[in-house]
Structure formats: structure tokens, C-alpha cells
Write the C-alpha cells for this entry.
Amino acid sequence: MEFLFLLVLGFVGILFVFYLIANHSAKRDEGRVNKFIQDFDIQISNYERFWDGKYIFYEEGNGRLWVYNPAKETYSVGEQGQILGCELRINEETEFRTSITSAAGRAVLGGVLAGGIGAIIGGVTARKDSRQLVHGADLTIYFVDGHYDTINIFSDTNGVQMTDSFFRNKYDNGMAWCKFIESLTDNR
């Protein structure tokens, strides 16, 4: 009986340590985000924090889109003319990709993406039924200079059904950002 009590006490102690580590990381990242916004004088019109802890900030006044990773203190930034497009992938399969109309844009993406560039691919949700499990979803933003930033918007090692409300919420947010980014590229 005493052994069981010590085992439970040890388990609770380990959980408490994990809680402290997670809480410290969250506070650290919050401080880094606030400092980043202040250092670059970002005037946020819209923003989102994603599953992997990365942020997207949009400044309407100057048309800048920022992707910031507070854990690594790295960022990407592009103004409207420097943003090439985006892609939303579910389980490594393209779900949505913005249209690229310029020859330069197609040439840049040609080396990065396989297949044709088009508006809605829609392949994943159209081909899969609700019993198909989703393990991950990513949003990739492409910039004219050839670099890109990938944001994990959902991850579950066990997988969830495509109709799972939590997944659908994350997916809808990712799709909204991808369509918003597409609207930025339409102004070229």
C-alpha cells in the first residue's frame, strides 16, 4: 500500500514538473511576442496564434504579413508585392493552393511545389470520407524571394476524424488565412 502511495505521489510530482516547464515556456514566449511587436513597431490589424506556437500578424496600413516563431525567435515578413501565395495541406496532401498568375511567381514556385498551380485543389476533403483520420495540417506561405514559412495548424499522433469539431475549427482558421493571403496576392 505504501508503495502505491509513493508511486502516485511520484506521478503527481512528474506532472507538476511538466506543468511548470510548460507554464514557463508559455510565459517566455508571451514576453518574446510582446518584445517582437514592440521592437518592430508592428501595428496589428489581424493576428493568429497557431498550434505550433507560431504567429501570423498582418498590418493593414502597410500591407505587411509577419510570421513569427517565438520559441526560435525567427520571423519572415513580406509586403503585399512580396507575398507569392500559400498552400494548406492535410496529412501531407494539398487541400488548397492560391493561384499564381505571374510568370515570375510560377517560376519561383515551380522549384518548390510539385504539380500544377491552381486555386482550390480540394483533393483531401473531396476524396476522403469522415472516417479518414487527420494527423496533421500545415499552412505554408511563399514569398517572392523564394523562401517560405510552414506553420503547423493541427497535429494529433493518434489522428481525429475529419468531422471532429476541434480539427474543423483549426482547419477553418487555416483556410481563412490562406484565402486572406490569396486576396493579398490578387492585388499584383
